[in-house]
User: Which sequence fits this backbone?
């Protein structure tokens, strides 16, 4: 994927507009179906209750965004990484808006951050990967209706 000014918005701050981050890659997984099955003693097989009470049921999904960082000094790189990680950590069951899906948003929480220095000029930048765990649904920005 090419570098772009598109990104994500969390708690009113945008990754490019507010921090100057270039989005290098994004990975939004689909949630896995959570089966609800029960076995009964002395019975062959199982009962599948997955479709009862409005099922099927889904687990969480993972949102991973990789940004390219560039700064003038090693200290500026460290400051930028700390600022960005602090911003990402504010996501606690927050709305996460992804510019690639402008009609929907996710509800999720910060999971992890990983900074990988550039192999050629590690003192001036690298890649920052931010990961979030989100509810299984994408929610429509106008109706708040959830869809997979």
Assistant:
């Amino acid at each position: 994927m090419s570098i772009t000014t598109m990104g994500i918005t969390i708690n009113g701050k945008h990754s490019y507009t507010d921090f100057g981050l270039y989005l290098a890659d994004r990975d939004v997984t689909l949630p896995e179906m959570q089966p609800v099955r029960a076995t009964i003693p002395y019975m062959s097989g199982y009962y599948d209750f997955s479709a009862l009470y409005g099922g099927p049921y889904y687990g969480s999904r993972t949102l991973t965004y990789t940004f390219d960082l560039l700064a003038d000094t090693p200290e500026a790189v460290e400051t930028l990484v700390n600022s960005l990680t602090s911003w990402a950590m504010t996501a606690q069951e927050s709305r996460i808006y992804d510019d690639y899906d402008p009609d929907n948003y996710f509800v999720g929480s910060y999971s992890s951050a990983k900074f990988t220095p550039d192999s050629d000029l590690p003192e001036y930048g690298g890649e920052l990967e931010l990961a979030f765990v989100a509810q299984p649904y994408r929610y429509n920005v106008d109706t708040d209706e959830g869809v997979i």
